[in-house]
Amino acid sequence: MKQLRAWIFRLAGILPGERRERELADEIESHLQMHIDDNLRAGMTPDQARRVAMLKLGGVAATAQAYRERRGIPLVENLLLDVRFALRQLRKNPGFTATAILMLALGLCASVSIFAFVDAALIKPLPYRNPERLVGLFAKAPACTPCNLSYLDYLDWKRLNKVFRSLEAYNHPLFMLSTPLGTEAANGTRVSGGFFRTLGVLPVLGRDFYAGEDLPAAPRTVILSYAVWQKRYRGKPDVIGQTVTLNGELHTVIGVLPREFHFAPAEPSDYWTTLHPAPGCDLHRGCHGMFGIARLKDGVSVSTALADVVLIAQQLEKQYPDSNHGFSAMAVPLTEAVVGNLRAVLLVLLSGAGLLLLIATVNIASLLLVRSESRRREMAVRSSLGASRARLIRQFVAEALVLVAAGGAIGLTSAGWVMQLLKKLIPPNRLDGMPFLHDLGLNLRVVLFAAAISLLAALLFSLTPALRLRLPEMRAGLAEGSRGSAGTTWRNLGSKLVILELATAVALLAGAGLLGQSLYRLLHVEIGLRPDRLASVYVMAPASRYSLVRQCVALERRIVSDIANLPGVKSVGITSALPVRSNDQGTWIRVMGKPRLGDHNDVLDRDVSSGYLATIGARLLRGRYFTDAEDSSKPHVVIVNQAMAKRFFPGEDPLGKQISFSSDPPVPMEIVGLVEDIKEGPLDIATFPAMYVPFNQNADNGFAVVVRTSVDGESLLSTLAGAIHAIDPGVVTEGGMMMTARIGDSQSAYLHRSTAWLVGGFAALALLLSVVGLYSVVAYSVGQRTREIGVRMALGAEPGAVYRLILKEAGWLTAGGIVLGLAGSLAVGALMRGVLFGVNSWDMPTLAAVAGVLGVAALLACYIPARRAASVNPVEALRAE
Amino acid sequence: MGDKADVWQGTLALMTLKTIEAMGPLHGYGIARRIEQTSGNLLSLNYGTLYPALLRLEQEGSIVSEWGLSENNRKAKFYKLTRAGRKQLQKETRDWEQTTAILARFLDPSKGPA
Predict the structure, then answer these.
(1) Which residues from chain A sit within 8 angstroms of residue B72, using beta carbons?
(2) Which sequence spans correspond to the domains of chain A?
(3) Rounded CA separation B52/A67 (Å)
(4) Is residue A28 within 8 angstroms of chain B, CB to CB?
(5) Total structural domains in chain B?
(6) pLDDT at A279 over 50
(7) Which of B55, B62, B69, B91 to probe by mutation at the A interface, max A CB count within 10 Å?
């Protein structure tokens, strides 16, 4: 306590204290006077009295010094002096200072911004109790990894497993919300009763679902998301007990979820209701519509759990071969299910930003080396005046601290800004699927990350010039007082640093090049349809009035005929699922006349109207399309894609063959057409066997409408929705979008594009920084060798020879950088293999182009100093010595 | 300085506190003179060393200072013991007595443990 008090006073004493200095002088003066008075009284002469008093007091200067040291903290005061001196030094050299600070800020800003995303997605724990004990459960089959579970399978998994404390299911359908203004689409999730208990989440208002509240007999209840509670109910607590009409049924509001709650796999989701299995898909074991989550029992690992569910799946496969044949199981940590393929992308981005930071710091370090070289004389003078080596090093530390503090402050502030900007660039529908990004910002972890980097940078920046401080050399520096033998040590070290920078830039450029190529290939994948001027919108009709095939077909025919009459519309089609989405809505088939099992006979199933394939611009290879008249009263027909023909009828003519759904007894459908593969699943996945059956024979109350337009279709989207509502106001439309945008914004295209752009940006900056680094090395070297060049020219060297001299030096550095960088590129490519599409990690044209770009940029950077060298006037160069 | 002893480390603060306790508020010169007198002029005190010691005691909160007038009407800075200083003095006195007692036993083994 006493010590603390004293230290506080001493800290306060650091502040400039003229008053305190004055006070000590006064006190000493009064002391002397009193002593002199006493001495005079004792009979001394005034001179003698003064002399004795002074002697007895001891050295006044020493006292004042001891007093001063006691008053403040000498180490800190010296450091402050050093910092003040460093500031003066840096201000004297604004070009260097600004460059160094900006480069550091740039590197920091890039890596901190990306780290914030990594933190939000991968590091920050999910908002559940012990989230690391949660797993996501899926079915697994060749068509879809991961696939959904069927409701009945979920019940069996729940009953048979020995590894989970609890196991729950959910799915994420589109809800139809009735409002005073009409019916609209709403986002919601159906969950089993223990869903929130398994996550360990309690509603902030009201209660959780009871166990058994998800059974058919239980009354309908709903829990609201915090956002919808705020938006629709203005956050009023009396919302509990109110009713909401979802899908035509009254639901009582029983709770509101916490604000920080999110569940990415089902997000966005505003209405959380219970499953209430209904006849139809839910009670059909072959109909997969659920996802599973489970909490592990204590001491059970994910791999043990996986083994257990695989065993259960095998058991079910034996028990229900009709529906479960070929379905295994998958269990992954829930974090993985939440983040998905974002992890690989984020790690690639973080590595990119890290490499940029590396170049920036290396660049600054080499600038500092240059500076220390030109300050050898200053250091020599200071050391011969008695500055200790430690004191000189402290000077460098102070300068490094000032640089890093400024660069760090700018970098961190701009990072806070840049990360929000990056977040704004994410399209809203993508952002909804990544709710963990909502509270992206400069949190403690991000700031600590920035602080750690800054500390490392400060260490590097203090050490680099301090390394140069070897005492004997410093004396030599003074004796020579010279520029003549410009430190070869520096040239060696500095050039090594430049090679490192160039190599890093090459690696980044190669990464960007590979990603760019990969994006190009992805966007130019053969999708089997013409996406331009193709509008699309999802339609959902209330199940209460559209449960029969007849009713749905009537609606479809009405929509097709009404929309076809709109101005600007060329043709209309209807499908159960739009292309370039996901490999879901698959089914099982059997080929008539072939053994029933022993194959994974799963194919994608699309129920399409007669005009659909022509509307999207599919290419018919053989046979014919459907006619509108082909409904349930006519023989069943089907069109297959090439992948399906190759798979089930290799070397045969598929036309005329018969297949059937896996129903019992089979209902044969005749193959009447063969189309070129249409990309039904994600762009980066090989096209799966798919079949197209007449909507009129398999109608459903949810489907998508596609429209080929003769004008730019963007404006037509709202007209489309209007026309559909005019037919039946109870029908909901959702997600109206042009097909080109749908493809460009699809998950794989979006991830590819954003990664390519960001890494491309990093690579461009890296190229700039490394070329600046090369320029400064060569320029400095030319400056140092002015005399040598002067001598050469005086002895008759042509300017051409001087050019060659400089360019040779630069050429070696560049070549070294490129060779090392290409080796690094291979490593980078291997690291990125997971995110690349259709391009090898050792893609030669990319690597050659990168080497070319860097070579040209380097040549340009060296041209300026080389020109200066060639125009040296030998007379002046020699006289200047 | 003949055979006069130097003030050894750590004891100056104790002497200063004791002097201020005995004399009441006192200026630096007075404290220095008083310490010499109390020691029977056996101690040689370099007056200058007193001031950093006083500053330290003040920073630690044992004493406070105030400008005033000396007996000869000279402006002088007077030091006064605080309550914390009084406690500190008691504690240091105890410590010192203990130290000297222990040393005494070492130096005169006949008074060793019974």
Answers:
(1) 34, 37
(2) 2-72, 131-339, 342-517+749-879, 542-730
(3) 5
(4) yes
(5) 1
(6) yes
(7) B55
Which residue shows structure tokens 């806070």? Answer: A416
Does residue B114 fall inside a structural domain?
A: no
Rounded CA-CA distance A569/A536 in Å is: 12
Nearest chain B Cα to A7, which residue?
Answer: B59
Per the listing, tokens 């223990």 go with A194
Q: Can you give the pLDDT at residue B114?
A: 43
Report the C-alpha gap between A673 and A613 in whole angstroms: 11
What lies within 8 Å, CB to CB, of A96 at 6+ separation is A90, A367, A371
Pick the closest to residue A697 from A748, A722, A660, A657 (CA basis).
A660
Of A172-181, A336-345, A378-387, A608-617, where does the model show the most confidence?
A: A608-617
What whole-number distance in Å separates Cα of residue A494 and Cα of residue A204?
Answer: 61
Query: Does A644 have pLDDT greater than 80?
Result: yes
Structural domain boundaries, residue B84: 5-108
Answer yes or no: is pLDDT of A308 > 60. Answer: yes
Confidence (pTM): 0.72
Letter for the amino acid at B21?
E
- Residue B79's pLDDT is 92
CB within 8 Å: A30 and B75: yes
Inter-chain residue contact B47 with A37, CB threshold 8 Å? no
The pLDDT mean for chain A works out to: 82
Please count the CA atoms within 13 angstroms of the CA of A593 that sit on its side-chain side. Answer: 9
Task: Indicate whether B86 belongs to any domain.
Answer: yes
Q: Which residue of B has its CA nearest to A24?
A: B51
Report chain A residues whose CB lies below 8 A from the CB of B30.
34
- Does A460 contact B at CB distance below 8 Å? no
d(CA A561, CA A340): 42
Percent of chain A with pLDDT over 70: 90
- Taking contacts as CB-CB distances below 8 angstroms, the residues of chain A near B70 are 30, 34
Higher pLDDT, B108 or A606: A606
Ranges A226-240, A584-598, A863-877: which has the least confidence:
A584-598
Give CA angle at A335 (A204, A200), nearest 5°.
30
Closest CA of chain A from B97, distance in Å: 22
| Cβ separation A57–B46 shorter than 8 A | yes
Q: How many CB pairs under 8 A join A and B?
A: 79
Specify the CATH number for the domain of residue B74.
1.10.10.10
What one-character DSSP code corresponds to residue A81? H
- Evaluate if residue A75 carries a pLDDT over 70: no
Most confidently predicted of A422-436, A462-476, A758-772, A827-841: A758-772
Residue/partner pairs of A155-163 with CB below 8 Å, 24 or more apart: A156/A312, A156/A316, A157/A292, A157/A309, A157/A312, A157/A329, A160/A312, A160/A315, A161/A294, A161/A305, A161/A308, A161/A309, A161/A312, A162/A308, A163/A296, A163/A297, A163/A300, A163/A304, A163/A305, A163/A308, A163/A309
Per-residue pLDDT at A655: 86
Q: How far is A85 from chain B (nearest CA, A)?
A: 29
pLDDT at A409: 92
Cα distance from B40 to chain A (closest Cα, Å)? 17
Residues of B in contact with A4 (CB under 8 A): none
| pLDDT score for A481 | 45
> Backbone phi, then psi, for A205, in 5-degree steps?
-140, 140
Single-letter residue type at A144: C
What's the confidence (pLDDT) of residue A283?
76
Q: Is residue B113, in this structure, part of any structural domain at all?
A: no
Q: Which among A752, A586, A669 has a CA at the least distance from the CA of A148?
A: A586
Nearest to A665 by CA among A592, A744, A759, A580: A592
Per-residue model confidence as pLDDT tens digits over A371-423: 777 777 777 787 777 777 777 788 888 888 888 999 999 999 998 898 888 88
pLDDT of residue A73: 64
Residue B90: in which H helix or E strand, if any? helix B83-107
